[in-house]
Amino acid sequence: MKNKTNRLLGVVALLIMVVSVLPVYAADFLVPEGKENPNVIVGTNDVYNNLYTAGATVAINSNVGGDLIAAGGMVSVSGDVEKDLIVSGGTVFINGKINDDAKIVGGNISINNSIGGDLLVGGGNVNISEKTEIGGDFIAGVGNLTLSSPIKGEVKIAGGNVLIDSKIEGDINIMAERLSFGPQAEVLGKIIYEGKNEAIVAEVAILHNEIEYTKAEKTAWKGGVKAGVKSIFAFGFIASALAWMLVVLALMIVKKDLVSSVASGVKNKFWKNLGIGFV
């Protein structure tokens, strides 16, 4: 118990240092309405610029005119986001358009609309559908990944099972247990792949360059993937932790009695789902 408390205090102290050197932007802090309902539901007619929010379940159904930062056991974003998106959740659904960068950490992640800039993802099971288009680079640390979205930039992945079934205009650098290219795959750039098994390539997939394959030993592969996932999660969790710090500060100021109920709901859903895909 003492060690957990010390670690928590250390994280809080670090976040306070980070927050103290960041510029302050006008933002709306949205919290649950009551102790009995630790959820946050944003209606389609609600108007927000920069929105920071957290709850056991968070559903954003309206457009956001600036940045959106959200954390919860389940997070659903159906409205468009004009600038950056940062989300941390057990289960995450992104159905709205993100006009700038997106950073997403979760157990199960589903993305079904365009990302204008870079996409950084850390998750157990990640599905990026053909409805998505990524305008920048894609970086991922994943357990299982299905990538059906065209990507304008480069791709860097550390993962377990990776399926690429879309057009990639930049170079690909992958460390994974299994890599497959589906029938819709087309890769214009270089492909550098390290893994235990050679990549599986569908007969009609189009690869403009040969795969530069390096067979990885089991121990080396595990260490490499762990390092890759660790680096992804370090970035993602710093971002989400900062969001949490800002939200919790708001909760402490305006509704102290909600902190424990919201935190409990998020913790129960988040950690349960986060482990899925990494086993």
Describe what you observe in this structure.
The chain is an alpha/beta fold and 279 residues long. Helix 1 crosses helix 2 (218-254). The chain starts with a helix and ends in a 5-residue tail after the last helix. It is 26% helix and 37% strand. It has helices spanning 2-20, 218-254, 259-274; strands spanning 28-30, 40-42, 51-60, 68-77, 85-94, 102-111, 119-128, 138-147, 155-164, 167-168, 172-181, 186-187, 191-195, 200-201, 206-207, 211-215. It is elongated, with a radius of gyration of 19 Å. Strands 1, 2, 3, 4, 5, 6, 7, 8, 9, 11, 13, 14 and 16 form a 13-stranded parallel β-sheet that branches. A three-stranded parallel β-sheet has the order 10-12-15, with no helix packed on it.
Task: Give the low-pLDDT segments.
Answer: 4-24, 233-243, 248-267, 274-279
Shape designation: elongated
Q: What is the tally of helical segments?
A: 3
The Rg value, from CA coordinates, equals 19 Å
Short recap of the structure:
The protein contains 3 helices and 16 strands.
Keywords:
279 residues, alpha/beta, 13-stranded parallel sheet, 3 helices, disordered C terminus
SSE blueprint and pairings:
Blueprint (H helix, E strand, L loop, with lengths): L1 H19 L7 E3 L9 E3 L8 E10 L7 E10 L7 E10 L7 E10 L7 E10 L9 E10 L7 E10 L2 E2 L3 E10 L4 E2 L3 E5 L4 E2 L4 E2 L3 E5 L2 H37 L4 H16 L5
Parallel strand pairs: 1-3, 2-3, 3-4, 4-5, 5-6, 6-7, 7-8, 8-9, 9-11, 10-12, 11-13, 11-14, 12-15, 13-16
Helix pairs in contact: 1-2
